[in-house]
Amino acid sequence: MELEKDEVMDIEKGELFKSKGNTQYSAKNYVQAIEHYNKAISYNQDASYYANRAACYLALKKYLKCIDDCDKALKIDSNYSKAFKRKA
C-alpha cells in the first residue's frame, strides 16, 4: 500500500514532534514534552506517541491520564509492551 504525499508529510511531522517531546522528556520537562506529543498525535495516531505522553503523565503522577493514554496506545497496537508497562 502506497502512502499519499500528505500522509507521508503527516508522519514526518509527527516524528519531528515526537523527537522534540523525547528531548523535553529526557530533560524532565514533562509539561513541554506533553505539548510536543500532543502535536505529534495531531499529525499521526501512533501508539508510541500515546505511550510517550503516558510516561509524562506517570512522571507527573497524573495516573488516570496515563492509563487513558496507555489504553489508546494498546487500541492501536495491542502488543505494545511499553503501554502495558506504564499502565501497570
CATH evolutionary superfamily: Tetratricopeptide repeat domain
* Unreliable stretches: none
First and last CA, distance: 35 Å
Largest sheet: none
Rounded to an integer, what's the Rg over CA atoms? 13 Å
**Anisotropy-based shape:** globular
Can you characterise this structure?
The structure is a single chain. The chain has 88 residues and is an all-alpha fold. The protein has one domain: Tetratricopeptide repeat domain (Serine Threonine Protein Phosphatase 5, Tetratricopeptide repeat), CATH 1.25.40.10. The protein is 80% helix and 0% strand. The chain contains five helices and no strands. The chain has helices at 5-26, 30-43, 47-59, 63-76, 81-87. Helix 1 packs antiparallel against helix 2 (30-43) and helix 2 runs antiparallel to helix 3. The longest helix is centred in the first third of the chain and has 22 residues, at 5-26. The protein is globular, with a radius of gyration of 13 Å. The chain starts with a helix and ends with a helix. The model has no long low-confidence stretch (mean pLDDT 93).
